[in-house]
Amino acid sequence: MTLGVTVITFALLHALPGNLGRDLIANPKATPQAIAQFDQQNGLTGSIWVQYWKFLDKLLHGNLGFSFRFDRSVDSLLATDLPRDLVLGGISLFLSLVIAIPIGIAQAVKRNGVADYAGTAVSFILYSMPQYAVALLLIQLLSITFKIFPPEAPDGSWLYMLEHPAGLVLPIGSLTLVSYAYFSRYMRSSAIDTLAQDYIRTARAKGLPERLVLLRHLLRNSVLTVVTLIGVSVPSIVTGTLITEQVFNLPGAGLEYFNAAVNSDYEVMLGITVLVGVVTVLGNLLADIAYALLDPRIRY
Amino acid sequence: MQRFKQSAFAAAAVALVAIAVGACGSGSNNSSSSTGSAAVTEISGLKQVGIGLTEPTKPSGAKIKGGTVTWAESPELTPNYIFPMTSFAYCSVANTSQFSAMLYRPLYWYGNNYSPTVNYNYSVAKAPVFSDNNTVVTVTLNSWKWSDGEPVTSRDIEFWMNLYKANPNNYCGYVPGRFPDNVTSMSTPNASTIVFHLNRSYDPEWFLYNELSQITPLPLAWDRTSLTQTAPTTDNGKLPDTTKAGALKVFKFLDTQSKALGSWASSPVWSVVDGPWKLTQFTTDGAATFVPNPTYSGSPKPTISKFVELPYTSDTAAFNEFRSGGPSAVTIGFLPPQDVPQVPAIQALGYIDNKASSYSFNYFPLNFNNPTVGPIFKQLYFRQAFQHLVDQPGWIKAFLDDAAVQTTNPVPPAPPSPLIKISAANNPLVFSIADARKLLTSNGWKVVGGGTTTCVKPGTAAGDCGAGITSGEAITFNLDYASGTASLESEMNDLEAQAKKVGITLEVTSHPFDTVIGAGVPCTPTQSICKWTAENWGAGWIYSPDFLPTGESLFATGAASNANGYSNPAANKLIDQTVFAPTRAAETKALTQYATLMSTQVPVVYGPTQVGIYGGVAGTLVSNKLGGFDAQAFGYLNPEAWYLTK
User: Per the count of CB atoms within 10 A, which of B49, B120, B421, B624 is most buried?
Assistant: First the structure.
């Protein structure tokens, strides 16, 4: 799958009008000789297949390529960016699950009540709001108007970021609010389906305390849907925080990918594509393992 | 020319504003209001900005010794190359005028406050002396020292020249046939003098502004091929740069060191400086911290204790920082176009909104060599008619928040230059649908407003459509522009609408900046790359390091950057007259004639040139506590002249 994506990305980039070397130089004054020299120095000569083979050769030797724009190896870029993305995406994913799962279950249990309607309204509002708007609203309110939190995420290593939690509140908050809405809706829906199952009715008929019914029977069975979503969401930890990175001034892999697409920095695009492909496979693998752990009936 | 582009990300935010603004439409109403504290002048009924700070800021508070000044870098434009010999791939203001020039002083410094002229006070060398009918140039150095204690000598210039000559394509100032090809020999009679012998007589001013401007003295400590070698301090006659092979190796070594971004601040190579600043910290994200170089030989000496450049992922992130932290967080920033309505709020925080321009002009080319519509583009009447469709006053007001200047020829409309005075008001091709229609009608076209205009008089006689244009041929072509800038999108949409009024069909498309600039290449009609018709990257041309706008690399026949294949013997003659002028008076006369000719020849389509030393922004925000800040005509930073006040 990953290989196929790299082929498509590579082909699309080379299908763009103009000369890739000239695109990368992006200077109307560049002479044909200078462009030819650039192409030669950066392996942009030869047919597309030769160039693709060179890319694959480097990839197989653990070299993700070189960013012409950033003047750094793609490995180095990702080594800087990924830990930041893990902090932002990982913490927000964790928080959104911690909030969404119990609220989703509570809404299902008390469905069509006032609390359910209120929860649904909040979820719909957050779900329908672009992440960009959520982030800007939080900044306007909590940074510019009340000056409680800084408008920027701490720019440094993952450790530096964790040492400056005030700067993480708004970016993680904006990510969490949006993904909370997403997860809670699925959790509520799944829990409603599960509540209608015979084994729930049986458990209740046997006199099992409601707390245990919810924990042992409802949660375990209804969370499977969310586990699928988590598996699918893992790649978004790598590249899904683009808007947050832009608004909160924290360059990460998502932003690098976007900029690479705009700037024809194709080795960065290919490098991140490969990474996301691997992470997607891993995410699905983890989800499959989680299925087996949660539901003994599932065997591979 | 240096690349300056806006954040692509601005598109998302800007688009919202543009939709609202665009809905109002473009008009030619000349009434206008100034934004913030912009200096606005009235020219022929059209209010224009671009005057900016004509002298350094002078806050009323008492001077503070020391202090930190922070500078917001343009989004996506962070330094990524420190070696001053920048190839085209690294030729950006972020790398040169706003970074390495503070560490490694160019031989000559250009920009006198807001005047686009040479500034000897900031230069390493004294004014050059031309002799032997302007075929010999003698440059005498001031008494400067490198931070390693060694003097700045003529050998340091020779070092630059050796690297440059070994492979001129390694430097973005190179124009084939010009510097250093036109230097037949050079000599260093003493440590402070270097003499260039030229292949013919050149205009002294042109040579100073466009050729000597390319030189940056390099310390001999860099004249080696590996870090393990001892850094040379004096010329022992065996330094590697003296042979071509050796010079290429030295370049490769320095290029490699320059690509090791994380090691810049601690590098034994890059720590040898002659400029007023030393780099003490640099992150790969582009955050840079400079402190004064205690051995700086020039003047003025820095009074602030630290200068910090801050990277931003988007102009939204930057502007949020300005709004939240004010001047105490960011001393100098930029005003994103979509945030112009917030100028009063930002001024209340303690910023001055400065509308200074960099020395540039905005244009886009039509491909004369396109096999289909090239013959139409080659017709002067068509180009003039098309220029009549460009509603510059309307665009400036409706889409550019009055933060742009009208452009009618390649000589920048702002900042004003004492070398050449061309008034933007002298626009021979003002926005006029009627004039465009008249030109087309009188040259063999049946104009169908809102429909399809066709050629009804093919041929080459007066009043005919022109060579290569067939009977019944329509005027339909693709206009591709750089995505991500709402104002440019609005401009192109308006141009499409205006063109339709005279039956010209524009197929407007957008691509990323780099793709657009990469597509507009010089070509011949039979080449597959020659299918492009009109490419507008939205950033035009900023004159640096070719500081005199003579156009030899842009509009001369066959010039490297003459993308659309424009060729006019009269233009060539005037360009040559500026390049080879015997006196300044002759050069000024030729340059003025050249600008006048270009305004009627319309070799490219002119558009409004935006203000801002950042390029493509609506202004520069400067703390009202910062003194000595000038609107540098070429966008160079000279924080050694700045000071903070209470």
Answer: B49
The CATH class of the A81-265 domain is mainly alpha
Residue in chain A nearest B76 by alpha carbon: A259
Q: Could A28 and B287 be called an inter-chain contact, meaning their C-beta atoms sit closer than 8 Å?
A: no
**Mean pLDDT of the B487-512 span:** 95
The reported pLDDT for the residue numbered B631 is 82
Contacts of A31 in chain B (CB under 8 A): 88, 169, 174-176, 560
CA-CA-CA-CA torsion sign (B164, B168, B174, B177): positive
- Asked if the C-beta of B532 comes within 8 angstroms of chain A's C-beta atoms, the answer is yes
* Closest Cβ opposite residue B313 in set A38, A143, A245: A245
pLDDT tens digit sequence for B394-445: 999 999 888 888 999 999 888 888 877 766 557 899 999 999 999 999 999 9
pLDDT-based confidence at B32, cuts 50/70/90? very low
Of A20, A152, A263, the CB nearest to B512: A263
Q: Do A143 and B324 touch (CB under 8 A)?
A: yes
Residues 344-373 of B with CB under 8 A from A: none
Domain ranges of chain A: 2-63, 81-265
pLDDT, tens digit (0-9, with 9 covering 90-100), for A14-50: 776 666 777 777 777 788 888 888 888 888 888 888 8
Confirm if B218 and B231 have CB atoms less than 8 A apart: no
A245 token code pair: 């990175």
Give pLDDT, residue A107.
96
Residue pair B363/B605 in contact (Cβ under 8 Å)? The answer is yes
CB A38 within 8 A of CB A25: yes
CA distances in angstroms from B78 to B287, B419, B498, listed in the order given: 8, 32, 38
pTM beyond cutoff 0.90: no
Whether B103 and B222 have beta carbons less than 8 Å apart is answered as no
Length of chain A: 300
Give this complex's ipTM. 0.85
Residues of B in contact with A150 (CB under 8 A): 324
Which residues of chain A make contact with B518, given a CB cutoff of 8 A? 17-20, 22-26, 264
Residue B227 has pLDDT above 60, yes or no: yes
Chain A residue numbers touching B3 (CB-CB < 8 A): 26-27
Q: What is the pLDDT of residue B500?
A: 98
Contact yes or no for B152/B221 (Cβ under 8 A):
no
Q: How far apart are CA B619 and CA A39, in angstroms?
A: 37
Residues of B in contact with A72 (CB under 8 A): 80, 259, 261, 284
Residue type, B613: I
Task: Read off the pLDDT band of B584 (50, 70, 90).
Answer: confident
